[in-house]
From TrEMBL, chain A:
SMART domains: BATS, Elp3. It comes from Pedobacter steynii. This is Thiamine biosynthesis protein ThiH. InterPro entries: Aldolase_TIM, BATS_dom, Elp3/MiaA/NifB-like_rSAM, rSAM, rSAM_sf, ThiH, ThiH/NoCL/HydG-like. Its cofactor is [4Fe-4S] cluster; [2Fe-2S] cluster.
From TrEMBL, chain B:
It catalyses: [ThiS sulfur-carrier protein]-C-terminal-Gly-aminoethanethioate + 2-iminoacetate + 1-deoxy-D-xylulose 5-phosphate = [ThiS sulfur-carrier protein]-C-terminal Gly-Gly + 2-[(2R,5Z)-2-carboxy-4-methylthiazol-5(2H)-ylidene]ethyl phosphate + 2 H2O + H(+). Pfam families: ThiG. It comes from Pedobacter steynii. Belongs to the ThiG family. Its EC number is 2.8.1.10. InterPro entries: Aldolase_TIM, Thiazole_synthase_ThiG, ThiG. This is Thiazole synthase. The gene is thiG.
Length: 370, 256
């Protein structure tokens, strides 16, 4: 059985109707439950939960402190390439976006690494577009080999790969793979991804199963908030998470909340999500799942990030550049999206410290998975 | 309704056949319990004798026999016993019990995992008796077990759910039915096990050694139904939350 067997039993429309039909009694029941179910999650992300936001935040804070303590994990993205054969209506790297393409050479990667290390990072997230001629498993192997001595934890957010690719990359030091479904609305997914390998909805949907089979240490899930109704999309993410946790029980999981941001050639979000709703979603995930890591990126504003770290978030990026070479090689090249919080990693760490938390830079060691 | 492998059970109370004062007392209690899955120790029955006294008293259409391997000490012996049971009792269902320790009858996790892997490959519906070990339960799932049967406390002790914290973890992450086995000493223990989300309980000693096994079996039947009903109705949270003096979401009212 794969997630698809479960996915096929749930219609988008019916799920959506069910979320919007939740009442304050359903929310009360979810808040008071000793164990929360997927139906509770629906109630917590529904419009009916809006008046309960403060209570959700209090509970979310308590549960997060219980499991994660007063700590926030630090990570930073390293964009390796903006080459991409996909057309994605919302992305600056889209194939039809006429920008100069670049894939970092080994020497350029090391220049970037030097700057990232100076910032204090030990956890790096490698990011690329999808260009299988130049950015492929062999390329990733070389990159991992090159940077492995410099980082304790290496994550990847690249195109979905075959099971055998993940199995090949793991011994090279790959710890975590992030693969966002973008949207679980199959028809709209196809509209947003009209060309390229990414247009294969099913292959993407099956990716976390392949990661689980490959024994990847941690996988990150999420949707791109703004493409479709965020409540329904988030329910499907929770459904996916629930299935994966039980089946691939030796892996860890994280959820991210990327909201559509302006970029070169931009798309207006179909569905806007305000800050209050994003807080609701973060708290709903925490109340649903006490163990899940919740991550927030520099897409969000300074004021929002300063406050949200106490509400359930467990990891944060800072000082991020979203263009290949952005740290040292070509700081002015095209970004994948604009960032909102431009503070340095040190400034973010200071902010975290002032709020009574520890900024954790290293939380793994390669020797543990050799 | 509870489904294990391809069988549907309307009763979530499973019972055992040991320690009764007579086969007749056992029969009366088991009928009162309305249990549909009854475990029987291979070492107690004469597999060659179709008119075995114990089996004769279990000959009801609603009662499914669950032979157990009590007495074996390792995986090899368990597999051999399972094959014998399948041939003699014409069932591929098996309660796998491997306890090399004759004093406390503690299940051997390593041999149990080995035997489960092999028996599942041989087509058995394996229900292993184990410690309340969440990792072992997931390992058994990967090995192809049909259910897991973690102990509530030492077998025959009537001490109740001493392992409740671990049982809750097992229940929360299991993809197969969780049957709490061993240690359940009273109907309230059984109700509690059901309230926390167990799919079924297996009770033997508490019924068999009670002053009135038939009445006690009926009490267990009702307790299991009540516990399940409470679970389905959903329990509320036990702890109360303090209301913080400075709201966490006030910042959302500010204009950024």
């Amino acid at each position: 059985m794969s997630f698809n067997d479960i996915f096929e039993c749930h219609s988008w429309e019916e799920t959506s109707r069910s979320i919007y039909a939740k009442t304050s009694a359903d929310v009360e029941q979810a808040l008071n439950a000793s164990k929360r179910t997927l139906e509770d999650f629906k109630a917590l992300i529904s419009p009916a939960a809006a008046p309960y936001l403060e209570r959700m935040a209090q509970l979310s804070q308590q549960l997060t402190l219980k499991r994660f303590g007063n700590t926030i994990q630090m990570y930073v993205p390293l964009y390796l390439s903006n080459e991409c054969n996909n057309i994605c209506t919302y992305c600056g790297f889209s194939y039809d976006n006429k920008v100069r393409r670049k894939t970092l050479s080994p020497m350029e990667i090391m220049e970037e690494v030097a700057v990232i290390k100076e910032m204090g990072y030990d956890h790096v997230l490698l990011v690329t577009g999808e260009a299988n001629q130049s950015v492929h498993t062999d390329y990733f192997k070389k990159v991992l080999e090159l940077i492995r001595p410099h980082f304790a934890h290496i994550s990847m957010e690249v195109q979905p790969l075959d099971l055998s690719d993940y199995q090949e990359l793991t011994p090279y030091g790959l710890n975590t793979v992030l693969v966002y479904q973008e949207t679980y609305h199959e028809e709209d997914y196809k509209k947003h991804h009209p060309k390229g390998k990414k247009s294969n909805f099913q292959y993407r949907l099956d990716t976390p199963d392949r990661l689980g089979q490959a024994g990847i240490h941690k996988m990150g899930l999420g949707v791109l908030i703004g493409l479709e109704d965020w409540r329904t999309d988030s329910f499907f993410t929770a459904l996916h998470l629930n299935y994966l946790e039980k089946k691939y029980w030796q892996s860890k999981y994280s959820i991210s909340f990327p909201r559509l941001r302006p970029f070169s050639g931009g798309l207006e979000p179909k569905v806007a999500m305000n800050d209050r709703e994003l807080v609701q979603l973060i708290c709903a995930y925490r109340l649903f799942n006490e163990e899940i890591e919740l991550s927030i990126s520099t897409r969000e504003s300074v004021a929002f990030r300063d406050n949200v770290i106490k509400l359930g978030i467990t990891s944060i990026s800072a000082g991020s550049k979203t263009n290949p070479g952005g740290y040292a090689v070509e700081p002015q090249s095209l970004e994948q999206f604009e960032i909102s919080d431009e503070r340095t990693a040190a400034e973010i760490a200071e902010m975290i410290h002032k709020q009574g938390y520890e900024a954790v830079w290293k939380d793994w060691d390669m020797s543990l998975t050799k | 309704m509870l489904k294990i492998a391809d069988k549907i059970f309307s009763s979530r109370l499973f019972t055992g056949t040991g320690k009764f004062s007579s086969p007749a007392a056992m029969e009366s209690a088991l009928l009162a319990s309305e249990s549909e899955l009854v475990t029987v120790a291979l070492k107690r029955v004469d597999l060659q004798d179709e008119s075995d006294d114990l089996l004769k008293h279990l000959n009801y259409p609603h009662i499914n026999l669950l032979p157990n391997t009590s007495g074996v000490r390792n995986a090899k012996e368990a597999v051999f016993a399972a094959q014998m049971a399948r041939e003699a009792l014409e069932t591929n269902w098996l309660k796998l019990e491997i306890h090399p320790d004759p004093k406390y009858l503690m299940p051997d996790p390593i041999e149990t995992l080995k035997a489960t892997e092999e028996l599942a490959k041989l087509g058995f519906i394996v229900l292993p008796y184990i410690h309340a070990d969440p990792v072992l339960c997931k390992r058994l799932e990967d090995a192809g077990t049909a259910a897991v049967m973690p102990l509530g406390s030492p077998i025959g002790s009537n001490k109740g759910l001493k392992t409740i914290d671990f049982l809750e973890i097992i229940i929360s992450q299991s993809n197969v039915p969780v049957i709490i086995d061993a240690g359940i000493g009273s109907p309230s223990d059984a109700a509690k096990a059901m309230e926390i989300g167990a799919d079924a309980v297996l009770v033997n000693t508490a019924i068999a050694v009670s002053g009135n096994p038939t009445k006690m079996a009926k009490a267990f039947k009702i307790a299991v139904q009540a516990g399940r009903m409470a679970y389905e109705a959903r329990l509320g949270q036990v702890y109360s939350q303090a209301v913080a003096s400075s709201p966490l979401t006030a910042f959302l009212d500010d204009e950024f």
